[in-house]
Amino acid sequence: MTDAALIRLTAAELGDKLAAGDVSAVEVAKAHLDRIEAVDGDVHAFLYISDTALDAAAAIDRRRASGESLGALAGVPIAVKDVLCTLDMPSTSGSKILEGWVPPYDATVVSRLRAADLVLLGKTNMDEFAMGSSTEFSAYGPTHNPWDLDRIPGGSGGGSAAAVAAFEAPLALGSDTGGSIRQPGAVTGTVGVKPTYGGVSRYGAIALASSLDQVGPVSRTVLDSALLHDVIKGHDPRDSTSLRDEWPSFAEAARSGLAGGALQGVRVGVVRELNGEGFQAGVKARFAEALELMANAGAEIVEIDAPSFEYAISAYYLILPAEASSNLAKFDSVRFGLRVQPEGGGTVEDVMAATREAGFGPEVKRRIILGTYALSAGYYDAYYGSAQKVRTLVQRDFAKAFDQVDVLVSPSAPTTAFRFGEKLDDPLSMYLNDLTTIPANLAGIPGISVPMGLAAEDGLPTGLQLMAPARADARLYTYGAAVEQLLEQSWGHTLISRAPDLSTTEQTAATEGVI
Ligand code: GLN
Hints:
Helices cover 40% and strands 12% of the residues. It is an alpha/beta fold and 515 residues long. The chain has 2 domains: 3-310 and 391-498, Alpha-Beta Complex (Amidase signature (AS) enzymes); 311-388, no CATH class. Strands 1-3-2-4-6-5-10-11-9-7-8 form an 11-stranded mixed β-sheet, sandwiched between helices. The chain is globular, with a radius of gyration of 22 Å. The relative contact order is 0.14. Residues 505-515 have low confidence and may be disordered. The structure holds glutamine (GLN).
């Protein structure tokens, strides 16, 4: 099999081929590393490429050869968002303040990847401390959308989504505090999942807003995300908010969605507030088509009102900065990371101030100021207290909705990928990008973004969001896989197969007939 064909396989297909001995983990890792070498100069999905990936792959091949039985994703490569701590690679969270910092431990999810024998390819680019919707706030320069290199790949996890969309990795991990897995998924034509809060460990994930953050899968198919979720899920005693649930097999849930008939009689709620003004016409048109396909497959489509969603963004932009300002206080120049000496010396406070001035970018500073203000004695009740009340109202709207329906749907993002610079000077218009994804974070419920087709006006990807009650992540995989299949049948191809080929003509020729 040629490298160009190998990199286009799904993680499930790679796992099968590796298990059957058709390819080796070294060959698979090498094909992806070569692809990174060939295209990442243009895409800039990676901040760091592992120099031990081939050794790790060789060790997996040896163990397989000795007859050891390995997991479903053993030998499959993966890219990891730079928000996650890795023992053998720097972890910067996209910030200058952590430039070159190599953590003394692995995040729990990273340990689980290693234990399941996935091959870590490197660390992916992101908005600084996961604040943003475009990767333009990365201190290391933006990632480019593989569908159009002049456009943003979404954020904050644009690097993970772009790596998967550009066939640099079949899988990636992201983190989603307000949409940073799902919105990049939507604008790059990939799948992204935010699990139920507490369903995946946050230990070793550099915190943005601890009550909202969740680590989750990025992939090119729903089944692949399910397989990856099966590896990272489950209780972690090192994370005090980790749920003790026994989770079902998400891969089985996805496969049951692909078996046909899964949408028969399913009550699908369309949230009126998540498909109104400000949504691009091409996004709305694709959403209407997806609803029609679901209805034709036997789903009952129900309109749902969630009046408090109107205030969700406002509440989020008080709660998030409040928690972030507190989480980021640890970057004090004393214990780790950057240290800047002010000219002519100074007190510890002067060193801290100079370090934070030099080490944090504009969006991080903006949110620290906002957060400390919202938490200050005189304003705590008026701002932070009110925002927490809105959060409760959002949770109640969801509870009421899930009394009536099995799953909620909306576009994953109001628009397709915008051009670099378009929203950089207008934080509010950047924030509005998360209109559809933020409510799920406020309520702690799971959400998935599935490729929904290309918008007619610009030919760029759109995403369909499905949301389920807390702990019902399996539903997202069953219904998500079913919708993915219906959409692909209606187009006659997968969406990602229409992504521009960033590689050489030689590779294009080799790929023909594979998809
Ligand atoms: N774009 C949102 C923000 O800037 C979401 C971030 C995230 O999910 N990490 O806060």
